[in-house]
Design brief:
3 helices, 34 strands, mainly beta, four-stranded antiparallel sheet
Length: 446
């Protein structure tokens, strides 16, 4: 009992110290807050040495189901949930299990940790708060129901009039904790603000469709996109709309529509990707479009990383990594990752950008030399990758997809999932990088 109380006290003190630093310090000192993308602004920048040269595998941890969510690191613990409905706490040094919690529903939400509590959402429509030290449930909040984005004639699939859930809507909204409240989106179309200690509803804001992007918070505003093709700025205290921005629509096959990407808010600008094949830059105060970079039909699912006047992001079908000038949107450089899509969001530590690929590879890009420094293959990629890879290294979709019927799309999607794609976004802490694979393995590389 004494050890448990000591652990809880350490968690509370550590979280309180982080909060104090974020209030009084410059943003660079707040990069390692245990939440999606490293901080409430979602800049994707980590104050860590990282792994400029890969020495090997520090450890692996096998979970039940697939890992779509990203790991969250708080002190000596790594937290992550799986599609088998299990949420794990793993020792950061050894990779051994500390505890697990059964939500009994698919978890594709990256956890946030604050004041000794772990927060995440699941496909049962519940939002959970667990004791970080023991995994005991503190409270849960029942939303109006969770589901994926759905539409007719989706991606050109048959039957034309059938409503189809989108298999590529693979993430749930990841929460962020700010000023005593926890914020997240839901498949019920709402953005929620709950009291972080009790789970009591503070406010909810209704959009026109599923909200699976993750909220970013800066200057008292919540920034978040919806599958209704609108991007919203909301007052964090009241939930009232400050402004909204309309992105592209696709009323026929619903391919070039919807915001899955979470925004990064840096230096008075909001950057986010959209399935209308653009990366947008908006004025954070007014929502005015400053520029939009078109990717020639390739979705931007990944959330951007922003540092030193540059915006870094990855694309889906074209498999590109871009560096753009943050003010003008001009291309500084780009890299082709052999046309394997990236849904994973880039993380930057030092002079290295880490990007997960649907090829089952984690690519480390040397930003100074503008080339891939090293790549690491998941276990599934080693085993199943060759069956769905062409001789030139690009994906062999012809081997996976048999036709244009909806069922064919689902079967093909899961064949490509056997390659062990990295949908999880990497997290960098000290001299290691952590990420999950759809092969169900949590990897720690050093």
């Amino acid at each position: 009992m004494r050890n448990q109380l000591k652990t809880r006290l350490q968690l509370v003190l550590r979280s309180s110290l982080r909060l104090a630093l974020c209030v009084v310090a410059v943003p660079a000192l707040c990069e390692n807050v245990p939440t999606f993308r490293g901080n409430p602004e979602h800049s994707g920048i980590y104050d860590a040495a990282g792994v400029p040269t890969l020495n090997g595998v520090k450890w692996t941890f096998k979970t039940a189901g697939r890992l779509i969510a990203s790991p969250t690191i708080d002190g000596s613990t790594v937290y992550i949930g799986s599609t088998a409905g299990l949420f794990y706490a793993v020792d950061r040094d050894s990779g051994s299990e500390r505890w697990k919690f059964a939500a009994k529903a698919r978890i594709a939400s990256t956890a946030a940790v604050a004041n000794g509590i772990v927060y995440f959402g699941a496909y049962d429509g519940n939002f959970y708060a667990l004791d970080a030290a023991s995994g005991a449930q503190k409270w849960k909040f029942d939303t109006e129901g969770e589901h994926r984005y759905a539409a007719t004639h989706l991606h050109g699939s048959q039957p034309v009039k059938e409503v189809m859930p989108d298999p590529f809507d693979c993430y749930l909204s990841s929460p962020v904790v700010w000023n005593g409240a926890v914020y997240f989106g839901s498949g019920d179309g709402n953005v929620y603000s709950l009291d972080a200690a009790s789970g009591t509803l503070k406010w909810k804001f209704k959009t026109g469709d599923v909200v699976h992007a993750s909220p970013a918070i800066a200057d008292g505003k919540v920034y978040i996109g919806s599958w209704d093709s609108n991007f919203y700025a909301l007052d964090a205290a009241t939930g009232k709309e400050v402004w909204r921005f309309k992105t592209g629509e696709d009323p026929d096959i619903h391919n070039q529509v919807g915001i899955q990407s979470s925004a990064a808010v840096v230096d008075g600008m909001v950057y986010f990707g959209c399935r209308d094949s653009h990366l947008y830059a908006l004025d954070a105060k007014t929502g005015e479009k400053k520029w939009a970079y078109g990717t020639k039909g390739s979705w931007v699912i990944a959330s951007p990383a922003v540092r030193d006047g540059k915006v870094y992001f990855a694309t889906s079908d074209s498999g590109m990594v871009y560096a753009l000038d943050a003010r003008s949107g001009d291309v500084i450089f780009s890299l082709n990752l052999q046309r394997w899509p990236s849904f994973s969001s880039p993380a930057i530590a030092g002079d290295v950008l880490y990007e997960g690929s649907s090829s089952g590879r984690l690519n480390a890009v040397d930003l100074a030399n503008r080339k891939v420094a090293w790549s690491f293959e998941t276990e599934a990629a080693k085993k199943n990758g060759p069956a769905y890879t062409k001789p030139d290294g690009s994906p062999n979709y012809e081997a996976a997809f048999d036709g244009d019927f909806y069922d064919d799309m689902i079967v093909g999607h899961y064949r490509m999932m056997s390659v062990g794609p990295i949908l999880s976004s990497p997290v960098v802490a000290e001299k290691a990088v952590y990420f999950g694979g759809t092969d169900g393995i949590l990897y720690a590389l050093d």
